[in-house]
Amino acid sequence: MRGLWFDLVRGLGRCLEGLGNWHEAGAHYCAALAIYPEVKEAHRGRLRCLRGEGAIAAAEGAYAYCRDQLLATTGRPPSAETEKLYRQITA
Which CATH superfamily is domain 2-90 in? Predict the structure, then answer.
């Protein structure tokens, strides 16, 4: 069930990102993370939305949350893809 549900959230989030509706897309990713904090793609979506809004400080906090949640739920740090996105945002 999680896979199908998150596929819908991801599709909606990507559509909203494509329209430049960063805030609403970010809200969907945050809703997904409230239920499934281990979903790396939702963390990346949230980071992309914060970048789109120009909210660099918030992106730094979101990355810290991502790192903490992934370590707590999976025992692993963020993926190389997430790290790369974070470096692009904070560069």
Answer: Tetratricopeptide repeat domain (1.25.40.10)
Quick one: which of 57, 55, 77 has its CA closest to 66? 77
Q: Is 79 helix (H, G, I), strand (E, B) or coil?
A: coil
What is the per-residue burial (b if ≥16 Cβ within 10 Å, else e) of 41-57? bbbbbbbbbbbbeebee
What is the pLDDT confidence band of residue 5, given thresholds at 50, 70 and 90? confident
Contact 66, 43 (CB under 8 A): yes
pLDDT tens per residue across span 36-68: 999 999 999 999 999 999 999 999 999 999 999
Question: Number of helices (H) and strands (E), helices first, in the chain?
Answer: 5, 0
User: For 68-81, how does the pLDDT look when each residue is reduced to its tens digit (9 = 90+)?
Assistant: 999 999 999 999 99
